[in-house]
Design brief:
heterodimer; A: mainly alpha; TIM Barrel; 2 domains; 3-stranded parallel beta sheet; two-stranded parallel ribbon; 21 helices; 49% helix; B: alpha/beta; Rossmann fold; 5-stranded parallel beta sheet; globular
Chain lengths: 574, 140
C-alpha cells in the first residue's frame, strides 16, 4: 500500500535476502525450502487506499461494517451477540413444553427452533414424522400451537415490543401467516411486528435439506415474503441469508461465500423483478453468517473480502444508491462451525471456538467463544459448556481487550494480499454461477450440491491421508495421550421425558384441533390456496393467513402446494 | 473358483434429517475403496430403505442420522429388512449418536455404530471383516 522504496530496488533486495540470509538459514536447518512464507510490499497491489480500504462504515467497508461495532458499545452487553434480541435459539417437544421452558427462563423474545416435520411441511401424525416430532425443535401443526407457544410472553412482553426469529424455510410464509394471524388476534398492527424468518430456501437445496417444492415455486414464495412485508410489515426482515450450512456441509470458505452471494443475488433480483426499488427493500435483508473453519488467516481475509464484495454487488450490479443498502447486515463474524469440532477429547473444541473468536475480532471487531464444546456429544449443550463459551467471549473482550482497535490487520502486506486473493477467488465462484444461469439453475443442475460434496470428500481424504491434521482424531492419538472427557453435571434444560412423550401428546392435540374446527371453512381456505397457487402472480400469504385462522394444518397447506408445485427430488447427488 | 462380486452397500438417510455430509463422504469413500455404493438421498422412510436394499441386492445398509431420531428409525429399518427376508444384510449406523444409545442399537440389530471422527478406511475394514466369503446373491 505505502511505497517505501522503489519497486525494482525492493525486488533486488528480496532476491539478495533469499540468496544470502534465508539460504544460510535453510542450510543450517537442512531444509530445501522454507516452511514459512514472507510478505513484503511487493505482494500488495498498488491501489489507492480509499478505493480498496477506506474507513469503517463507509464504502467499500473493507475496514468494517460500522464505524463502531455494536459489540464495542455498552449496549453490546457482556455477552455481545451471544444472546440475540430474540433470545437463544431454542425449542423442543410440544408448544406447551417450549412455552413452559421460555417462561421459566423469563424470555423476552422468541428465537424458535422448529422440529423437522414442521420444517418439511408434515403434520405430527404423518408417517414420515415418526421419531422426529419435537426432536430438534418445537412441533407446530396449527395456529393453536403458535398461540400456546406465545403464551410464554403473557404478562412479560407483547408482540409489538419483542422480536421473533423463525428458523424456517420451505413453509416460511405459513409460519409468518401464523404470526400475522396471532398479531391480529392480539390487536397488534402488522407494521409493529419485528422479526427475522430464515427463509433462505436456496441453501436448503444446497446443504441443509429441508426443501419441499422445486426451486422455482420456492423462489416465488420468497418473492411473496419480500413484497408482502414491504407493504404490510415493513419492520420485519424478510430473509436471513446463510453461508454457515453450506460450510458445515463441506464447502470451502471461498465456496461458502461465493454461493451465499450467488444466492443473495437471486433473492435481490426477486424484489427487483417484482418492481420494487432496491434501496427500499434491501434494508430488510439480513445475513446469518458464513460459518468458519480452522484456517485462521484465510477466515480473516474472507470476512474482510465479504464486506467489500457485497458492497460492490449492491452498488455496481444492482445500482443501489443509499449507502445503507451497501451494508452487509449480519453475517459479519467468524464462527468456527461444529464440523471442525471433534468427539475425541471434546474440550479441545473450546480452543477451536476461541481461535475462531480471535479471528473474528481481528476481522470484524467482535467475536464469541463459538459453539459450546460439547456439541458433538449429542443434541443439547450442558450449562457448564455454555458458561465456558460465555466466559471465553468475556475473556477475549475484557481481559485481552481484543476489541480495542478496529480492523487492526489492515495494511499488513500479508493480510491485504490474502484479502485480495480470497476476494478474487470468491468472485470466480459468483461468475461461475452466473455463467450457469444463476443460483436457481446451479441448484437445478446439481452443480452447487456436487461442488460442496466434492469439497467435503476432499477434506475427508486429506484427514485420512494425514495431509490435514485434526488433533486427537488422525494425529496425536498414541498411548501417551490422555483422552480428556470432562463430565457434564448440569445437563441441557430440555426435559428428556417430555421429549420422549412429545410425539404422542402432539398427535393427540392435533386430533382434538381437527375435531373442533369448522371443516367447511378449512376446505374453502385450502381450495382458495390451490387456485391462487396456480397463478404465479398471486401472493399466497393472504391465503395462508385465512387458512391458518381456520386452523388448517401446515401439512394440509403444504399438501395442496405439493399438488400444484410438485416436490423436489435432487439429481446427481454424489 | 467362483468370481466374487464387489460388496454392495446402500448408504441411507432415514427420517427427515437433511445433514448428509457424512453420508455422502462415506458413500464416496467406500466407492473409492472398491465397494459398489448406492446413496438413497435424504428423507427416506424405513420401508423405502428396505425396499431399495432388496431391489439393489445389497450386502450392507449404512444408516445416518443427526437429528436424534436414531432410536426409533434405525430399529425400524432392521424390522423392515427382516420383513422382506433380508436377514443377512449387515446394518451399520453413524451420525450424532450419544454413546449411551449404542448398546440399545446393537440389541436392535445394528452391528456397529460409527461416531464422528471415524475414518472411512475403518468402516471399510469393518465391512470386509463382517461380510463373509459365503456372500451370494439374495436369489433374485
Amino acid at each position: 500500500m505505502c511505497e517505501w522504496e522503489d519497486r525494482e530496488e525492493l525486488e533486488r533486495e528480496r532476491r539478495r535476502w533469499e540468496e544470502t540470509t534465508l539460504q544460510r538459514n535453510l542450510e543450517r536447518l537442512g531444509l530445501k525450502e522454507s516452511p514459512v512464507k514472507l510478505y513484503t510490499p511487493l505482494d500488495v497491489k498498488r491501489k489507492k487506499y480509499m478505493e480498496r480500504l477506506g474507513f469503517p462504515g463507509e464504502y467499500p467497508f473493507t475496514r468494517g461494517t460500522y464505524a463502531v461495532p455494536i459489540a464495542a458499545t455498552p449496549y453490546g452487553g457482556d455477552t455481545m451477540g451471544v444472546r440475540p434480541a430474540a433470545g437463544v435459539y431454542a425449542g423442543y417437544g410440544t408448544a406447551e413444553d417450549t412455552r413452559d421452558l421460555w417462561r421459566k427462563e423469563r424470555r423476552r423474545g422468541a428465537n424458535v427452533a422448529f422440529d423437522l416435520p414442521t420444517q418439511c411441511g408434515y403434520d405430527s401424525d404423518h408417517p414420515m414424522a415418526e421419531g422426529e416430532v419435537g426432536r430438534v425443535g418445537v412441533a407446530i401443526d396449527t395456529l393453536a400451537d403458535f398461540e400456546t407457544l406465545y403464551e410464554a410472553f403473557d404478562g412479560i412482553t407483547t408482540l409489538d415490543r419483542m422480536a421473533s426469529n423463525f428458523t424456517i424455510n420451505a413453509p416460511c410464509n405459513i409460519i409468518l401467516a401464523m404470526y400475522f394471524a396471532l398479531a391480529e388476534k392480539k390487536g397488534v398492527p402488522w407494521n409493529k411486528l419485528r422479526g427475522t424468518p430464515q427463509n433462505d430456501i436456496l441453501k436448503e437445496f444446497a446443504a441443509r435439506g429441508t426443501y419441499i417444492f422445486p426451486p422455482k415455486p420456492s423462489m416465488r414464495m420468497v418473492r411473496d415474503t419480500i413484497t408482502f412485508c414491504h407493504k404490510y410489515a415493513p419492520e420485519m426482515n424478510v430473509i436471513s441469508i446463510c453461508g454457515y450450512h453450506m460450510r458445515e456441509a463441506g464447502a470451502t470458505e471461498v465456496q461458502a461465500s461465493g454461493f451465499t452471494f450467488a444466492h443473495a443475488i437471486a433473492y435481490v433480483q426477486l424484489g427487483v423483478d417484482a418492481g420494487l426499488d432496491v434501496d427500499e427493500f434491501i434494508p430488510r435483508f439480513t445475513f446469518l453468517d458464513f460459518g468458519g473453519g480452522m484456517d485462521f488467516w484465510r477466515e480473516i481475509a474472507r470476512a474482510r473480502a465479504n464486506r467489500r464484495i457485497w458492497a460492490r454487488i449492491m452498488r455496481e450490479r444492482f445500482g443501489a444508491k443509499n449507502p445503507r443498502s451497501w451494508i452487509m447486515r449480519g453475517g459479519d463474524s467468524i464462527f468456527v462451525g461444529p464440523s471442525c469440532y471433534t468427539l475425541q477429547r471434546p474440550l479441545n473444541n473450546l480452543i477451536r471456538g476461541v481461535i475462531g473468536g480471535i479471528a473474528s475480532y481481528l476481522a470484524t471487531g467482535f467475536g464469541t467463544g463459538g459453539v459450546p464444546w460439547d456439541e458433538p456429544l449429542g443434541l443439547g449443550h450442558s450449562y457448564e459448556a455454555r458458561q465456558l463459551t460465555l466466559d471465553a467471549t468475556r475473556i477475549m473482550r475484557f481481559e485481552a481487550k481484543l476489541g480495542q482497535v478496529i480492523d487492526p490487520l489492515a495494511g499488513s502486506y500479508f493480510v491485504e494480499a490474502l484479502t485480495d486473493q480470497v476476494e478474487e477467488e470468491i468472485w470466480e465462484v459468483i461468475r461461475k454461477v452466473d455463467e450457469i444461469g444463476g443460483a436457481v439453475e446451479a441448484i437445478e443442475t446439481g452443480y452447487t450440491i456436487r461442488e460442496i460434496a466434492r469439497s467435503a470428500y476432499e477434506q475427508q481424504r486429506q484427514i485420512e491421508t494425514g495431509e490435514r491434521v485434526v488433533v486427537g482424531v488422525n494425529m496425536f492419538t498414541g498411548e501417551n495421550e490422555i483422552e480428556v472427557i470432562p463430565p457434564r453435571l448440569l445437563p441441557h434444560p430440555y426435559d428428556p421425558q417430555h421429549l420422549e412423550s412429545a410425539e404422542e401428546r402432539q398427535k393427540a392435540k392435533l386430533k382434538k384441533i381437527k375435531g373442533e374446527r369448522d371443516q367447511a371453512q378449512v376446505n374453502m381456505a385450502l381450495k382458495a390456496i390451490r387456485k391462487a397457487a396456480k397463478n404465479e402472480n398471486e401472493n399466497l400469504i393472504p391465503y395462508f393467513i385465512d387458512a391458518v385462522k381456520a386452523y388448517c394444518t401446515i401439512g394440509e397447506i403444504c399438501d395442496v402446494l405439493r399438488d400444484v408445485f410438485g416436490v423436489w427430488e435432487p439429481k446427481g447427488i454424489v | 473358483m467362483t468370481e466374487q462380486r464387489p460388496i454392495r452397500v446402500l448408504i441411507a438417510k432415514p427420517g427427515l434429517d437433511g445433514h448428509d455430509r457424512g453420508a455422502k463422504v462415506v458413500a464416496l469413500g467406500l466407492r473409492d475403496a472398491g465397494f459398489e455404493v448406492i446413496y438413497s438421498g435424504i428423507r427416506r422412510s424405513p420401508a423405502e430403505i428396505a425396499e431399495e436394499a432388496l431391489q439393489e441386492d445389497v450386502d450392507v445398509v449404512g444408516l445416518s442420522s443427526l437429528s436424534g431420531a436414531h432410536r426409533t428409525l434405525f430399529p425400524r429399518v432392521v424390522e423392515e429388512l427382516r420383513k422382506r427376508g433380508l436377514h443377512d444384510v449387515l446394518v451399520i449406523g453413524g451420525g450424532l449418536i450419544p454413546p449411551e444409545d449404542i448398546p440399545y442399537l446393537r440389541e436392535k440389530g445394528i452391528a456397529e455404530v460409527f461416531l464422528p471422527g471415524t475414518l472411512v478406511s475403518d468402516i471399510a475394514k469393518f465391512i470386509r471383516e463382517h461380510v463373509g466369503g459365503e456372500r451370494s446373491s439374495h436369489g433374485k
